[in-house]
Amino acid sequence: MLKIPQIGLRQTVNVAEYLFTRLSQVGICSVHGVPGDYNLAALDYLHQADLKWVGNTNELNAGYAADGYARVKGISAMITTSGVGELSAINALAGAFAEHVPIIHIVGCPSKQSQRNHMLLHHTLGNGNFFAFKTMSDQISCHAVKLISPTDIADQIDDALRQCWLCSRPVYIMLPTDMIEMKIKSGNLMIPLNLQASLNDPRKEDHIVEVILKRLYTAKKPILLIDTFAIRHQVLDEIKALTEKAQIPVFVTPMGRGGFDETNPNFGGLYAGEGSEPRTKHKVESSDLILCIGALKCDLNTTGFSYSISELNTIDFQNTHIRVGYSEYQGVQMKGVLRKLAEQLDSSKLSLIRSPHITRTLSAEVEDPSPTITHAWLWPRLSKFLRETDIVVTETGSPNFGIWDTKFSSSVTALSQLFWGSIGWSVGASQGAALAAKDAGQTRRTILLIGDGSL
User: Fold this and answer.
1) pLDDT exceeds cutoff 50 at 363
2) Domain residues of the chain, as ranges?
3) How far apart are alpha carbons 222 and 239 in whole angstroms?
4) Helix (H, G, I), strand (E, B) or coil at 220
5) For the whole model, what pTM was predicted?
6) I need a labelling partner for 265 at 20 to 30 A (CA). Which of 48, 136, 155, 381 fits?
7) Tell me, which fold does domain 202-349 have in CATH?
8) Which runs of E-coded beta strand occur in 199-336?
9) What distance in Å separates the CA atoms of residue 320 and residue 154, rounded to the nearest whole number?
């Protein structure tokens, strides 16, 4: 049911009401941030949209919390004030941009009149340039807007939220103080925001599916490798449907943890190049066809770029293109291709050579008489502590790598920032993740693994 809190059939609403109602409609229940004189008036309208305000100790932690919230709930929002506030959050938002995390960043800024008059206001650079900070955020946002034209604001907000969801990256919304209570038409609020991606060109999609199926039917040792963008761009349901039909081995990368049930008989283990268990490494690198879903082949995710897999034998699925061997198909999204693959796959045509199932050996299963707690003992042992549906957050440093030796229970959500690697991220992210689970009506444990240097 479309949520229109306390607005009803009014023909006009103010900008803050419109913006916050749209946040509620896309599933956000709590908004993180820090109050400031340029956003205070807007904050008064949060409760009218059934949104809870979460005041953080500083903007950086608010950004980290919004990051964790989005990874669990699907999308998040945060509010800062112009200049000093937004720049304090920019590190967190850069991390969200790098790792494809959708955060709506709302920045309260001086009035349009103040900007036109180039007034020497506090929290500015003193040179009359009120857009310098937006220019900085342009580089770490998939979309940025200034809400200054009443006739355009509703569409601007809708477009920004849509881009945030579809690109799975932060967007920047600049809200002047004199626009907060400006009246705009409310008609759009009666229509659910369209968050569906555009469909692929059916002829191109059909051709790609045909090419992939031919490769899949002739492969003797195909595997599927799940990476982070499969999670970020929400294709896990399509992957599940495909694997249930194909019954081929499934592996995950360090950043792809949580993308597949590790208790599933088809789960083969964690592949990270030279950082893999020997049997897992051999299984992946001897495959004659690798369906690689949402890859991010950065240094830490690949153990120093140590992958040893043939590009010719790899089909790379991304949100913007599909690469089959050395041929690239631009403008084709993986969601539609994966869905059609699952629908059209005829498992009787597969030429699989079945190999013995790989069971991960955990060193903690062997009793260690030593009284010393070592990394070699701790991380495998942690497997016995985890429960189904846990949210496991690992900090930059030892936890991000130690967790590779921990086997997850079913439906565990794994949060890490292995690519951006901002020390301290996990503390705020844990708060956001725990709140997101609560807002979703879920009873889940949030477990943070962190060293004292980051805490």
Assistant:
1) no
2) 12-190, 202-349, 375-454
3) 15
4) coil
5) 0.94
6) 381
7) Rossmann fold (3.40.50)
8) 222-226, 250-252, 267-270, 289-293, 314-317, 321-324, 327-330
9) 28
What pLDDT, on the 0 to 100 scale, is given for residue 357?
A: 60
Token representation of residue 169: 């990256």
CB count within 10 Å of CB 11 equals 8
Q: What is the CATH number of domain 375-454?
A: 3.40.50.970
The closest alpha carbon to 63, from 94, 28, 40, 35, belongs to 94
d(CA 10, CA 5): 11
Q: How far apart are CA 68 and CA 415, in angstroms?
A: 8
Task: Name residue, tokens 């039917």.
Answer: 217
Which residues have CB under 8 Å from 237's CB, separation 6+?
none
Q: Which fold has domain 12-190?
A: Rossmann fold (3.40.50)
| Residues linked to residue 184 through DSSP beta bridges, in sequence order | 13
Q: Cα-flanking dihedrals φ and ψ of residue 450, to 5°?
A: -150, 150
- 267/249 Cα distance (integer angstroms): 6
On whether the CB atoms of residues 347 and 341 are closer than 8 A, the answer is no
407-419 CB burial, b ≥16 within 10 A, e <16? bbbeebbbbbbbb
pLDDT at 8 over 90: no
Q: What's the one-letter identity of residue 394?
A: T
Contact 91, 60 (CB under 8 A): yes
Per the rule left: phi > 0, alpha: psi between -120 and 50, beta: everything else, 424 is left
CA 421 vs CA 397, 399, 400: distances in Å: 8, 12, 9
| CA–CA distance, 42 with 422 (Å, rounded to integer) | 30
Whether 12-190 shares its CATH topology with 375-454 is answered yes
Which is nearest to 232 in space by CA: 298, 331, 173, 165?
165
| CA 30 from centroid of its chain's CA atoms | 17
Compute the distance between CA of residue 235 and CA of residue 222 in angstroms, rounded to an integer.
20
With 50 as the cut, is the pLDDT of residue 1 above it? no
What does residue 315 show for φ and ψ, rounded to 5 degrees?
A: -110, 115
Do the beta carbons of residue 355 and residue 284 sit within 8 Å? no
Encode pLDDT of 403-425 as tens digits. 999 999 999 999 999 999 999 99
Q: Is 365 left (phi over 0), alpha (psi -120 to 50) or beta?
A: alpha
**Mean of pLDDT values over 41-60:** 97
Q: What does residue 196 show for φ and ψ, rounded to 5 degrees?
A: -85, 135
